[in-house]
């Protein structure tokens, strides 16, 4: 009696192929990171707010933390949109692409820390540079995942035009982030302000789309 045998496959040939699972993990990490950002906003101690006159100064003291919260939330939102755009044009995944996105999520998880470091130690130049380094790593990991997917035929056929727009956007973002970091060597508040303006621009789509021709 003959018996049939299933073909032998290596683990690396079948691992990490579920795009749905990678997307679910990504959404979970982003939502946790966004939630952690708000923990930097601490209600002023009761001893500091005893009268109506104390409310204003107490709230003004929170402005750096509020600014950091807005900046961090915008940054996470921008990179979530970039990653979700990439997922839209992925036909399939493999183990290495899954690990590219896990590496990206590792850097996403650092953003609450770099944001807290920025707000705690502002206006030190090093605090802004730590935040910029986090953004640099986010862009590098996301661009690396896209290039890997393109070179290994994991993208849908209609990805070409969108892929060019995605690469241009990530490249321009990093140039503008670097300009903001460079400005910190002249004026730290100006560099941080430019960084916030860049993030607002990408979140609201005011100028970047026209520059990129998207």
UniProtKB/TrEMBL annotation:
<keyword id="KW-0633">Potassium transport</keyword>
<dbReference type="Pfam" id="PF06736">
    <property type="entry name" value="TMEM175"/>
</dbReference>
<dbReference type="InterPro" id="IPR010617">
    <property type="entry name" value="TMEM175-like"/>
</dbReference>
<keyword id="KW-0472">Membrane</keyword>
<feature type="transmembrane region" description="Helical">
    <location>
        <begin position="97"/>
        <end position="117"/>
    </location>
</feature>
<keyword id="KW-0631">Potassium channel</keyword>
<protein>
    <submittedName>
        <fullName>DUF1211 domain-containing protein</fullName>
    </submittedName>
</protein>
<keyword id="KW-0812">Transmembrane</keyword>
<keyword id="KW-0406">Ion transport</keyword>
<keyword id="KW-0407">Ion channel</keyword>
<feature type="transmembrane region" description="Helical">
    <location>
        <begin position="69"/>
        <end position="90"/>
    </location>
</feature>
<comment type="similarity">
    <text>Belongs to the TMEM175 family.</text>
</comment>
<keyword id="KW-1133">Transmembrane helix</keyword>
<keyword id="KW-0630">Potassium</keyword>
<feature type="transmembrane region" description="Helical">
    <location>
        <begin position="177"/>
        <end position="204"/>
    </location>
</feature>
<keyword id="KW-0813">Transport</keyword>
<feature type="transmembrane region" description="Helical">
    <location>
        <begin position="129"/>
        <end position="149"/>
    </location>
</feature>
């Amino acid at each position: 009696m003959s018996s049939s045998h299933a073909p032998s496959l290596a683990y690396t040939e079948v691992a990490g192929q579920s795009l749905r699972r990678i997307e679910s993990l990504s959404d979970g990490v982003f939502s946790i990171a966004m939630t952690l950002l708000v923990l930097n906003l601490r209600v002023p101690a009761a001893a500091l707010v005893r009268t109506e006159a104390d409310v204003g100064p107490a709230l003004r003291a929170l402005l750096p933390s509020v600014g950091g919260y807005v900046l961090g939330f915008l940054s996470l939102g921008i990179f979530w949109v970039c990653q979700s755009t990439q997922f839209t044009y992925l036909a399939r995944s493999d183990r290495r692409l899954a690990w590219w996105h896990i590496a990206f999520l590792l850097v996403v998880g650092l953003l609450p820390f770099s944001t807290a470091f920025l707000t705690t130690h502002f206006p030190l130049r090093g605090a802004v540079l730590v935040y910029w380094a986090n953004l640099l790593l986010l862009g590098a990991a996301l661009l690396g995942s896209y290039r890997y997917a393109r070179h290994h035929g994991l993208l849908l056929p209609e990805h070409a035009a969108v892929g060019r727009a995605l690469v241009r956007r990530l490249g321009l973002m990093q140039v503008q982030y670097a300009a903001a970091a460079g400005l910190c060597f002249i004026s730290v508040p100006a560099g941080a302000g430019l960084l916030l303006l860049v993030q607002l621009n990408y979140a609201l789509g005011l100028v970047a789309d026209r520059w990129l021709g998207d």
